[in-house]
Amino acid sequence: MKIRKFVFVLGGFALAVVMILGATLPVFAADFANITITANPLFLSITNTPNTWTMNGLVNGKAVRIDTVYYSNPLGDTTAPATVNDSSCRFTVTCSTNATTCDLTVNVGNFSGGGLVMTNSNDGSNGATTFGAYSWYSGMTYSNKVIAKDTGSTAMYTTGLAADATLKWGMEIETRTDAVTAGGVSTSIATITATEH
Question: Is residue 63, in this structure, part of any structural domain at all?
């Protein structure tokens, strides 16, 4: 520590002022500790089998008729499931996720190509050029089936399917009411989506 003294004379009195300049303090080396941060991402993944449904294909490959309801029902796709159980559900979805459960939503897109071109009515009803669609799952009351819209459907399964669990489910389509004037296969894409419960 360096000290310098200055003497000022004020009104005949001597005043000593002590100033500390360039003070030197002890220097310590820097120290640190590392913190490891881990993040395990939440993921949702589902698989569905089978990934195809030929409407009326379960009944000797017959053609699809207008103004008729078809069910993805292994017991016969022109027969509504009396009780929605595993045997009346064509599809099986498996949820692969970690530390969470998932809800399931089904959307059914418009039919294009071939002669049975139809647009989803988005309200479950059919009409001229429109079809209605619903989805349901094993264990639910059939009358509580959920409208399957082109997009933005309400979730079909809302109780949270657990990781590695499976769920049997099905859907139905009521074809348009007006006449079909051409043959050929029409197709639609149904999408089942998992969201965090």
Answer: yes
- Other residues' Cβ atoms within 10 Å of the Cβ of residue 14: 8
Residue 144, SS3 per DSSP: helix
pLDDT value for 73: 86
Contact 106, 146 (CB under 8 A): yes
**Parallel/antiparallel/unpaired status of strands 101-108 and 166-174:** unpaired
Task: Classify residue 31: in a domain, yes or no.
Answer: no
The residue written with tokens 């993805």 in the block is 72
**pLDDT block averages, 10 residues each, the chain of length 197:** 42 48 67 93 92 86 91 85 91 90 96 96 98 97 96 97 95 96 94 94
Domain membership of residue 96 as a residue range: 44-196
Q: Cis bond leading into 26, ω under 30°?
A: no
Rounded to the nearest 5°, which phi and psi values hold at 84?
-80, 100
CA distance 53 to 69: 14
> Domain tally for the chain?
1
Instruction: Give residues with Cβ within 8 angstroms of 55, minimum separation 6.
Output: 64, 70, 77, 173
Q: What is this structure's pTM?
A: 0.80
Dist CA 126 CA 170 (whole Å): 19
Helix (H, G, I), strand (E, B) or coil at 87: helix
Q: Decide if 19 is inside a domain.
A: no
Q: Is residue 70 part of a domain?
A: yes
